[in-house]
Amino acid sequence: MTFQGKVALITGAGSGIGRATALAFAAGGASVVVSDVNETGGQETVGSIRQAGGEAIFVGADVSQPEEVEALVAEAVRQFGRLDIAVNNAGIGGAWARTADYPLDDWARVLAVNLSGVFYCMQQEIRRMVAQGGSAQSGGAIVNVASIAGQRALANAPAYTASKHGVIGLTRTAAQEYARQNIRVNAVCPVFTRTPLFDGMIEGNDRLAERFEKSIPMRRFGEAADIAHAILWLCSEGAGFVTGQAVNIDGGLTA
To answer: How does DSSP assign 18-35, residue by residue?
Structure first.
């Protein structure tokens, strides 16, 4: 897969899936806009890309703040002249508690980042892609990082589960709305994946980690690269007739 001449924006690219995706796009020839609330992590991703001979910049943004998202997309276009690919990956986990006991502040924060943040990003990204003109040569590709928890229940994580269900709904809606402009919108739904977020969730809880791992038929957790490869395919010419899909990357869990 080659992305020469393309500009890709990845949120939450300071670590985990976002970082793996940014590195992969850069290796494929894309100019990459790395965004995260964690400037240190984001700059490390940019440094790795540049060290490998790729082109990247860091633009910090909190996706739960619409004005910061607007500035992010504007800066991406100012630096590189256009926007071809967007990966809306930024997200948080939130508290672990049953629905009746779930903290209201956690509910608001998880929905603000995981769902509203994706919505704000999509608004700005789609506006830019539409302005560039929809054709086989332009258009654009957007991938939203949802979760298996967007396809099924995840007990004791009502906010996370609701937010990821919402991401899939947004993905399908926008895919229908902008198909004629050749703007493709898809989602990926990873199973438990070895990222700092997930590792922090299971740290010190070997029984929980074992239960999660045994639920996956392939008997291993996902790796960030597993998800990045699927994202790149969805943004490639090989997936040019694929839109509105929520692609499970789950080692057979939902089979």
So the answer is: HHHHHHHHHHTT-EEEE-
Give catalytic residue positions. Answer: 160
- Cα separation, 86 vs 51, in Å, equals 23
- Residue ranges of domains in the chain: 7-195+223-249
Radius of gyration of the chain (CA): 17
The per-residue pLDDT string of the chain (255 residues; one tens digit each, 9 = 90 and over) reads 899 999 999 999 999 999 999 999 999 999 999 999 999 999 999 999 999 999 999 999 999 999 999 999 999 999 999 999 999 999 999 998 999 999 999 999 999 999 999 999 999 999 999 999 754 456 899 999 999 999 999 999 999 999 999 999 999 999 999 999 999 999 999 988 778 777 766 667 778 778 888 888 888 888 999 999 999 999 999 999 999 999 999 989 989
Helix (H/G/I), strand (E/B), else coil: 188: strand
Task: Count Cα neighbours of 239 within 13 Å in the Cβ-side half-sphere.
Answer: 24
pTM, entire model? 0.93
Calculate helix-pair angle for 158-178, 104-111, nearest 10 degrees: 20
| Torsion sign (Cα): 163, 167, 168, 169 | positive
Which CATH code is given to the segment(s) 7-195+223-249? 3.40.50.720
Neighbours of 67 (CB within 10 A): 10
Helices (H) and strands (E) in the chain, counts: 9, 9
The full DSSP string for 75-144 is HHHHHHS---EEEE----------GGG--HHHHHHHHIIIIIHHHHHHHHHHHHHHHH--SSSS-EEEEE
